[in-house]
Amino acid sequence: MENKKVLLRIEDLTHYFPLKKPHIFAEQRYVRANEGINLNIYQGETFGLVGESGCGKSTLGRVILQLYTQTGGTILYYGKTLEEFKPKYVKKTIKALPGIMAKYKELGWELGEIAMEKAKKDKGLRKVVERYADAVRIAGGLVLADNLDEVTKVLLEEYDAGSVHFEIAQAVDDLTMKRDTLDHKEDKTAEEKELLAKYNKELAELTVKLEKAKAVLDDKWAALQELRAKYSDREGFAEVDKLQDEGIDLAKLTKEEMRILRKELQVIFQDPYSSLNPRLTVGQLISEALTAHNIFKRGTKVLENYVLEVMDRCGLQKYMIHRYPHQFSGGQRQRIGIARALSVMPQFVVCDEAVSALDVSIQSQVINLLMDLKEKENLTYLFISHDLSAVKFISDRIGVMYLGNMVELTSSDKIFKDPLHPYTEALMKAIPTTEDEPGKELVSVEGDIPSPINPPSGCKFHTRCKYATDKCKQVEPEWRELKPGHFVACHYPLDKGEEIVQETKGASA
Question: With contact defined as beta carbons under 8 Å apart, do 264 and 79 qualify?
């Protein structure tokens, strides 16, 4: 996976749910749903996320989609780049560039671990560091230029040209989808042929506009590269320039910008009945997002043709288009949910316990459908489940969560053959199996999950871990890559944990 393109980069992600204060003078308390999550999700992979109920899996999926506003950390999306998308926060940062750098230089810092550690304890300093990090992601080494007014001017001109280009490109993409839907249809009516001719004419006009906008953008981009060459020999330029990042910071988008990206970031919910509006037909449910994003007009024949095409891809018969959710089985309803999510041609889909409410026989059908659609549509999945068997079957990599933290992450094969965290080992032993293995016993994970409001100090799993020592109770384990591509947060990983623990206990005795 390391050679694949990163689609989502999650850095130090935190999400807390505030609790109601008992009275005005009481300290604000929080449910610590996600803490310090660091994760890359690669384009085209299925990333499985497992853990007991209440570990924060579904919260993480919803935070990634910005259905919940993150408390801290960063989520960078690379399905579109800053160069293409041009969100408003970029322009705001460019305009503020001279002021950001003046404040940062006033503090006499260099960007690094010391600055970040200090900033964690001071809200004002954290704001300065975050704004500087934004500036570096957007402008790279140009933040070190002497004449920041000149830099700001050139960056703004390139930004404005890019914004125009993006708007026209979006219109071209939407019109192309409409045109192709009609073009692929056999036995077109006279009305449909006329509409197809209209789409082709509009597309030709838009393509000309797009080419002109691209020419302007190329000129502005060339001017920006000349400016970069001018300052490239400055001390520290190359080092800082490496920190430039084209990822879109999802938390900084406006509601309208996030609405645009909703086409690319979709979700399939756990309950295939409550997530579907019972007053809408299948056709209306699938077309809802298409009309909301102005891809198709409501009630048109081209919309109906496209909906039928989507239904066919998801294993739904054409005659079902006018039926209501209550007229379907659980598996069929989940297919409707899948069709609704995939209708806008997303890049990333969160499958939030998408098969857990279904019978085992239906689960396999839905999982096979998801895998088939992934290959055909080049999708990327975050597959959330408490069922390790289902996750193993569908996932390329698996992350294990416990009480808001990621405790282990590696490939699907490795995590089952060579688990390193005691919690992962305990989950494996709790998997029911039909195989008759001598001496194999079904063992549940011992103890109860601690409160996410007052989690244990040190390693959160130490209250239930048979390998725990005093160090585990006091020191939070570091998230580290113990083997190539195999990450774990444990003081005593299982491949050498028993030996280390025995030594530690022997020494203390």
Answer: yes
Q: Tens of pLDDT along 117-156?
A: 666 667 777 788 888 889 999 999 999 998 999 999 999 9
Q: How far is CA 27 from CA 30, 49, 72, 145, 243, in A?
A: 10, 33, 20, 45, 38
How far is 502 from 33, CA to CA, in rounded Å? 33
Question: Crossing angle of helices 282-292/301-313, nearest 10°?
Answer: 110
pTM of this prediction? 0.89
DSSP for 206-228?
HHHHHHHHHHHHHHHHHHHHHHH
pLDDT tens digits, one per residue of 368-395: 999 999 999 899 999 999 888 889 889 9
Question: φ, ψ for residue 76 (rounded to 5)?
Answer: -105, 130
Beta strands (DSSP E) in 367-492 are 380-384, 397-402, 405-411, 479-483, 486-489
Instruction: Measure Cα distances from 193 to 186, 196, 197, 202, 307 in Å.
Output: 11, 5, 6, 14, 19
Strands 479-483 and 72-77, bridge-based pairing: unpaired
Q: Which residue has the tokens 């009945």?
A: 273
Rounded Cα distance, 109 and 126, in Å = 13
Residues 6+ apart with CB under 8 A from 165: 210, 213, 214, 216, 217
Instruction: Please report which confidence band the pLDDT of residue 115 belongs to, taking 50, 70 and 90 as the band edges.
Output: low
DSSP state of 439: T
Quick check: 424 pLDDT over 80?
Answer: yes
**Do residues 65 and 24 touch, judged by C-beta distance below 8 A?**
no
Residue 148 to residues 143, 236, 285, Cα–Cα distance (Å): 7, 16, 51
Output the DSSP codes for 271-316: -TTTTS-TTS-HHHHHHHHHHHTTSS-TT-HHHHHHHHHHHHHTT-
CA distance 242 to 253: 24
Nearest to 157 by CA among 100, 104, 226: 226
Q: In whole angstroms, give the CA distance from residue 9 to residue 38.
A: 8
> Would you say the C-alpha torsion 276, 280, 282, 284 has a positive or negative sign?
negative
Query: How confident is the model at residue 121, as a pLDDT?
Result: 66
Half-sphere exposure of 443 (CA within 13 A, CB side): 13
Specify whether the CB–CB gap between 389 and 472 falls below 8 A.
Answer: no
Kindly list the distances between the CA atom of residue 188 and the CA atoms of 34, 175, 305, in Å, as whole numbers in the listed order. 53, 18, 11
- From the list 205, 201, 154, 199, the residue with the least C-alpha distance to 213 is 205
Identity at 389, one-letter amino acid code: S
Per DSSP, what are the bridge partners of residue 400?
50, 408
DSSP track, 69-108: --SEEEEEE-SS-HHHH--HHHHHHHHTHHHHHHHHHHHT
